[in-house]
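Researcher: Next entry in the queue.
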Amino acid sequence: MAFCLYLSVFHSASAQRRFDASLFAGLNMCQIDGDQAGNYSHPGLRTGVGTSFSLSSDSDSPWRMVVELAYTAKGSYNKEYNTSLDAGYVELPLLLSYTTLERRLRIAAGVAPAVKVRARFKNGSDVDSHWDDFFSVVDWLPLTVTLRYLVTDHLGLEGRFQYSALSVADDAPSGTYFLLRSNKGLFHNLVNIGLTYTF
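Model: Structure for this entry, 199 residues:
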C-alpha cells in the first residue's frame, strides 16, 4: 500500500517535472596523481542510477539538485613497468545543477563521496589483493563537474571530471601535495564519457 502511494506521488511529481529519474553508464579514463604513472591510461566502468529535483516550488526553475548512486572503477596503469592499481567504489554524488537550452544542457558541480569495495595491485599477471589495505576505506571528497546534453527527450551524452580533494591512500611517501602542504598522498583523477537515459 505504502509502495503504491510512493509510486503515485513520484509519478505525479515527475509529470510536473519536479522530479526525474535516470540510468547512466560510461567509461572512466583514470590516473592517480602522486604515483608517478599518469596519462589517464587506466580504463574503468561507471554505471548507476540518479534523480534530480527542483530546488523551488517553480517546476520550471533551471536550478536543480542531482543525487546519484553509482559504481565506479578508478586507478592507474604504468605502461613502462606493466603495473596497474585498480580500485572500485560505490559513490553518492551530490550535485547542484543548472539547465539551459530548453532543458537540454545541464551543467552540474558538487562532491561524490565514495566507499571502497575492492582494490588490488597487478604486476604483469601477478595480482596482490593486499593493496586493499593500502587505499583508504572512504574517498571523502571527490570534486565533480559534469556536462550533460540531451540528444533526444530521453537519451543524453555526459562528460564528467572528478578529482579527489583529500588523499585516498593511508601512506604514500612518494605522493604529491594538493590544496595544503599537509595533504600529501595519492589522488584519484578521472575523466568520464557516457550515456544517460532520463525517464
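Model: The radius of gyration is 19 Å.
Researcher: Noted, moving on.
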